[in-house]
Amino acid sequence: MRARRFASLSAGAAAAVCVAALVVTDGAAAAPLPGGLGPCVGPACPDKYPPVNNKDYAGRDNGINVYVGGEFQVREAAAEAEGRVVVLGDFDMAKRAGASSVYNVGIAGVGSRVPPPDGADFLTTGGDVSVAADQRLLADGGVVRHAGTVTGTVTGKLEKDPDAAKPYLSLREDLRVASKCYARDGATPRPATGTAVNQGYRTLFTGDGKSALQVFTVDFDLTGATGGMQGIEFEGIPAGATILVNMVGAARTINTYTGDLNDQDPLNKLRERLLWNFPDATQVKIAGGAQFQGSVLIGEPGSTATVTASGMNGRFFTTGSLVHSSEATGGGGQEFHAYPFDGDLPECGGTPTTTPSSSSSSSSSSSSSSSSSSSATTSSSSSTSTSPTSTSSSPTSSTSTSSSSTSATSTSTAPTSTTSSSQTSSTSTSPTSSSSSSATSSSTATSSSSASPTSSSSSSSTTPGPGVTTSTTPGQPGATTPGGGPSDSGPLASTGSEVRGLLVSGLFLLLLGGALVVLTIRSRRRES
Length: 528
Known about the structure:
Largest sheet: 10 strands, parallel
Structural class: alpha/beta
Oligomer: single chain
């Protein structure tokens, strides 16, 4: 009798353990972004990131904050890009006359205040670095590692390295494939767990209240009915869930006033597990007076992304080109702030598909403020131009600057832009924009030199693409790893760590369940 009871209890326990193991290991389908991108990297990462501020450093982050597969253009009155910046093509700075003459990379006067370690590569380019006359690119405390020539004034340590971008070349294809995979399983759209409705004054995202991965598919612009700013709100999102917003379509615009400097807005609390994915768009525009929250992934290598939002708070990874700018009629001080992405995304394994061919661009045009329902429509215009080749120079000026940008009360914008590309080349033009916007910004600088900028804001372009050889090893001491910096900084942070723990636990429980089943069978055989 005791043996029978033991057998029954053992069988029940084995079944329960096996079920528990299956439930636990089911979570292993989650994964981080390719190449270890997203999380903070290194031993000095803060336990918690502070709101946007200008206080002492809260920690150090050796992860890539901005990755650009094409070229990076700085236009109009944009101010800075905090964190490490990797550009496979050219970096071209030509701000408008009358705007601040500087642009910071690496360390920002106002931001998360979690910059890269001293001496890290603040800016890496596979092409040229071009700075307009009487303007300055500031990388104080870090390295500007460039494969091409440097023209204009650049501070920091300059390192000529023909293989500067080599460690990061494969990331472009990995990110392209991941962006497609996050939106679709083959040709089938990834099932959404919630709904997104553009109500004119806001777009409301409603989750299912239970899934660890909240997926939304959006086939409209996040703008008011006439293209102006609108709110962004999420509800029904469980604590700790990852939010994946797939912005599908050939051209997409987000123009919002949601997100603040002090982390009081509800959207700010979702920042480090929120990813805005643009798998198809050849034209992406992110605008508005807000501190935009969440990381961005753009998967089309022939794309041009134009960012005029007051602040971007999260990682920014594009396989195409990037224009960091301000509205032609508005204030300046636009900034990228370094905040991590710690979400768990769908597993996207397998061999990458073929590289997409070049694609033409379309851009959206809109105006006025938000009201009524429905999303904005898009129309297109585009142009291309060829790049200048520049001669070298070796800058020596030193300085530190701080710039801060707060709100803009704008109503709409219109990027016009470009283009086409394959893995090896792309062309782009800088945007022109219309409509109104007002902003307040402040910047201060202590410096040994000053000048008034003289450059244009509406053209330029290059033939970027990863113009880097692949036959030799990188020149950076210690080599580099795609997700972070020098390999001696330790392993890359990975959101998969908690998944690995679940796998180990699940395996242990499965083994224990199997042992109990064997004991049950043996006991029954003895009885018989």
